[in-house]
Amino acid sequence: MRRVLSILIILSLCVPGLIAAGVGCSKSDSKLHEKTDFTPPRANIAVSGDLVTGGVVRLDGRGSADDRGFWDTGIREWRWDVYGDDVADGTGPVLDWTWDRPGTYMVNLVVTDWGGVASPAESVMVTIGPSDTQWPGVGRDFHHTGFVDSALTVSDNSTVWVSDNVGFYQGTTLAVAASMVFVTCNNGSWSGITALQLGSGDVVWQAALDNIGYWESRASCAYHDGCLYVATYTNLVKLDAATGTMLDIYDFEELLVNSDLMIAEGKVFLGSFEFMGNGFFAAVDASDFTLLWKKEYPGLNCNAVPAYDAGVLYVGTAPSFGSPENAAMMALDAETGDEIWKKDSPNGFSYYAPMTVHGDFVYGATFSFNEGDNTTVTKRNKTDGTLEWVRGCGSASSPPAVTDDLVVIAGGSHGPTDGRTTCYDLDGNSEWDEPGTGSWTCQPVVFGSCVFTSDFYYDSINWVGWNTTFHCLDIASGTKLWSHDGCGGSPSVVVVGGAVYIIVGSHDGQIYCFGG
Description:
4-stranded antiparallel sheet, 5-stranded mixed sheet, about 5% helix, Immunoglobulin-like
């Protein structure tokens, strides 16, 4: 019995904490300690929860382990850094965190064992999208999914409000944030941005900006962190979203016609349209408005606003008039603009539309001036651009809406063509195709069990005489549930205080709000 106790005492003196203090072990014991106790533990992060602003995101470090040495002591401490700035924001094996701004955040975890040995930092990128109370720009989120998961329904075409004629510029997307609706306007004599109250449609402020609508420019404004951004003619402009006051301006000295904006990583990403020249994609610092990078593409139009996912931009190009260059889908490094992969359009049709990212794949709809009702949507692997499938759709310059089950595209070229809204499952199998419900400038929105989409007609010779109809379709069959004449385009949908607001412009310059 005494011999057993002696062995236990010797072993207790050789635990890592006492060895580190130099207590009572032989040289051979110290060598054993060097081989085992200083083997660092491994940090592991699992992410779950509501990945939107204001949502609770669970960061779980319980998968971390100290299991690679002979004499492992277990995890004593978890240290979380949720902004990637090497500042501790929390401790413990599980951290519930809420971000109040959309963006992609680097989350780091360092774990320490009972011997005082720390792991290398384990890092994951967490992308936080806007909440249901916001529609900050084209496609709603970084991925342009155009999808709001909701159990709420809108049973008929009753309006909550209709605004005065504010000169809404047809084909642009309405940004919704901070209880306001931000409208790109041009009524022929005045152009700028108008802010409306979300609840009533009353005008809050108007800010005049020159050249909105230049060359039929359909550049939509985008909201980020209390500011509003819009591209007009050659300028990128930044406004105070609360007042409309001009905060900054960057002059590219080149056309930004039709360039919508993507704001992520504290950067404004945009492209350009040069009908007979050279396009480019660029990044500008959202705070100080300095140019971070610019990549030129001779002979190509680059006005498809980038989609963003985990440090990568997904973009499309279209040949300039008379250019021998091929239209292509590309992935670019968001930090440098460098090309990661590039894939030519499988049928030569142009990518004027923004891409949509969902899961491991990127989707892009194409446009053709000659094949208005017979272009395609493509699905590629987002990592290397491998082509998954190509399917038919109407000619589109707006992104597809993508859910966990379906891809929905609205298309139909300008002029007297029969627009359509088309639906496929994620494997490319046809679900339904509803004629007379789509247009090239409309991104459909999937809201719960409904699809909101628009058709239009106008004189393609004189570029006048818009006539639009807004539709609510059943997501399962494409059947029309209700319609409203006189308004249409890409809708913006938010849910505030349990009430649904479906907001869409009209050819007569007014803004319509459905729901309630």
